[in-house]
Amino acid sequence: MAPALSRSLYTTPLTSLPLTPTRLSPLRTASLPRADVGLRTGVSWSLEKRCSRFAVKCDAAVAEKETAEEGSGEKFEYQAEVSRLLDLIVHSLYSHKEVFLRELVSNASDALDKVRFLSVTEPALLGDGGDLEIRIKPDPDNGTITITDTGIGMTKEELIDCLGTIAQSGTSKFLKALKENKDLGADNGLIGQFGVGFYSAFLVAEKVVVSTKSPKSDKQYVWESVADSSSYVIREETDPENFLRRGTQITLYLRSWLQEDDKYEFAESTRIKNLVKNYSQFVGFPIYTWQEKSRTVEVEEEEPAKEGEEEKEGEPKKTKKTTKTEKYWDWELANETKPLWMRNSKEVSKEEYNEFYKKAFNEFLDPLAHTHFTTEGEVEFRSILYIPGMGPLNNEDVPNPKTKNIRLHVKRVFISDDFDGELFPRYLSFVKGVVDSNDLPLNVSREILQESRIVRIMRKRLIRKTFDMIQEISESENKEDYKKFWENFGRFLKLGCIEDTGNHKRITPLLRFYSSKNEEELTSLDEYIENMGENQKAIYYLATDSLKSAKSAPFLEKLIQKDLEVLYLVEPIDEVVIQNLQTYKEKKFVDISKEDLELGDEDEVKEREAKQEFNLLCDWIKQQLGDKVAKVQVSNRLSSSPCVLVSGKFGWSANMERLMKAQALGDTSSLEFMRGRRILEINPDHPIIKDLNAACKNAPESSEATRVVDLLYDTAIISSGFTPDSPAELGNKIYEMMAMAVGGRWGRVEEEEGSSNVNEGEDTKDGEAEVIEPSEVRAESDPWQD
């Protein structure tokens, strides 16, 4: 085509036309493209004079005609290897072989739905076809499964169209369904979506036989196909024993490799029953399975003759009645549990909710609370959510989002309970419930929930409803319910404070802690703020490893004296939670174990005088301790303890330092960096500090004073919650002080005294000086003086 266009461009140039410039200019500017446009687009424009008129001619059509004449092309359609396509559908779409039963039962449910819809306008369609139901009969001996429904059935043309055409709507609609994940003409409660569910039968079957009878046809047809085949057979049913009144019967001949120990995996009646209960127990039509049962019957048995007695001829034999257990096979309803979420919540009693919870989730305790709601508008779904009556037994499952507690249904058919945070965050993984929607975007196998805007909206509303349910428990008159909830699931909500900053406003009012004013009962943050004084501007907290150590911590002394409440954070996660919250109702959280603690009513004059008086002592103690502390200062938080060791503003607290050291995979190199500086605060009113102040002024080089400072620092490490670097060295210092105080107070053992007298005599004979033991030296201020 390009050469033809090139020839027309240069064989008839515009400049060669016999026209005057004055007459050509208006025509060219108004109707004719510039000459360079033709060169860029491959289209040739020319002017022709016909009957004193000018005509514009495009040579593209001429060139196309010339090309068509030079060589004609053939049109082809894409071809597909049917056996390969079926293999991909069967073995690539589905993760588990057991879903074949879900797909086939869903198809049967659709057939029943269709006949019910059509019978509204055509009652004759129901005829004498019997009740609308599904029956499943496994045969373990022959390795078959038969699924029968009394639905609409299919004619011969519908067999070809539905089963003979992959995806039913053709390849184009099938690909469109994959791309858009939208329902292809499903009506009301119809389950089918992509048109490939039937072929999942070949996951477990090497041969599938479909016998179907439509009320629109007088004949019954049989469709038959073998796995890994690209063809199928349709024939008319002629055996009267196999005639159906209406509906479809599917017989699966199970694959031989599914056979183990002479038993087929999916031919066991118990396995079929469990699969129906798992995937299809909420289908709107009764599903019966062929089950083995037992019953007790009375039978008459001949009574054996007693020893020594002879049986007389002609006399009737004595019999006795006994009970015997016999086994038999019969149909059993597998989906007796009704979809409670489809009913109006006002019509359902609490007992019904509890019974549904126990059956659906195999629980034995009643739930703490439940909520039943329907969401309409942009996305429509129904749901029932429960808070269990007991927390998980295995603590390892606490942060696990894959707890299988949320069962997702689409049009009452179970899809999945294996989620990774799509519908619920992991800190709410303890919530159990059912979600049913017609709008969920699923992949073709209906196993994977696709990420979409609809899913995000559902997630947001489910979370909000869950928090509303928990809030109702916390506000109920029965305080024991929320106490029980907090004991079981409190750590989940604390995890939510760390992972979900967007819901802090919902989570924070639900938190509970012990406090200095209420050591027996848990306190909420709202109650704490209600009890705050007028001058208190912050929420004080202390993080420790236990409630007992929190009560005796030296950081509390001045706050308790001033009647200020302090929250006790005794669980490992608590301090991280508070650090993520930072504030609540415009009140900052303040750690009382860190520097620059402001209590709101300090006496500035007294503080200034104390700092001036003990400024020299602070410098002297800092000189003695060296790099062990960043600085020494006068404390405003102590009343009875001589000193305390506090952390810097931006470093770890003592509790956090202890937790980080305990991490199995912790980075030891970051411990020194994140530990932060330590500040020693002294109590100017304590006698020990006053004595040290005197020693600093009168005997700054005293070794005894230096030993007291070292022991004071080591003691402050332990009382403040830190871990000493050398516990053995600290123990030796304490033993030495004990020996000085205790030694000789209660007298010696006689043997020791006798040996000491002998030693004294030998020392005197040798002319050596008498040694007086330190224990015999008594000071006037000895606290052990009688």
3D structure, described in words:
This is Histidine kinase/HSP90-like ATPase domain-containing protein. Helix content is 36%, strand content 20%. The protein has 786 residues and is α+β, with helices and mostly antiparallel strands. α1 crosses α4 (60-70) and α11 packs antiparallel against α12. Mean pLDDT is 78; it is low at 1-70, 169-179 and 181-188.
Rg from alpha-carbon coordinates: 45 Å
- Give the spatial strand order of the biggest sheet: 7-6-5-8-4-3-11-12
Class from secondary-structure proportions: alpha+beta
Shape descriptor reads elongated
- Portion in beta strands: 15-25%
Break the fold down into its secondary structure elements and pairings.
Layout: H1 2-11, H2 21-31, H3 35-41, E1 45-50, E2 53-58, H4 60-70, H5 82-93, H6 99-121, E3 134-139, E4 144-149, H7 156-162, H8 171-180, E5 205-213, E6 220-226, E7 233-236, E8 247-254, E9 259-260, E10 263-264, H9 269-279, E11 287-302, E12 319-333, H10 350-361, E13 369-375, E14 381-387, E15 406-410, E16 413-416, E17 432-437, H11 453-475, H12 479-499, H13 504-507, E18 512-515, E19 518-524, H14 525-530, E20 538-543, H15 547-551, H16 557-561, E21 566-569, H17 574-581, E22 583-584, E23 587-591, H18 604-625, E24 631-634, E25 643-647, H19 654-661, H20 668-674, E26 678-682, H21 687-698, H22 703-719, H23 727-742, H24 750-765
Helix pairs in contact: 1-4, 11-12, 12-17, 18-21
Characteristics of this structure?
single chain, 786 residues, alpha+beta, 8-stranded mixed beta sheet, 6-stranded mixed beta sheet, 20% strand, elongated, disordered N terminus, Histidine kinase/HSP90-like ATPase domain-containing protein
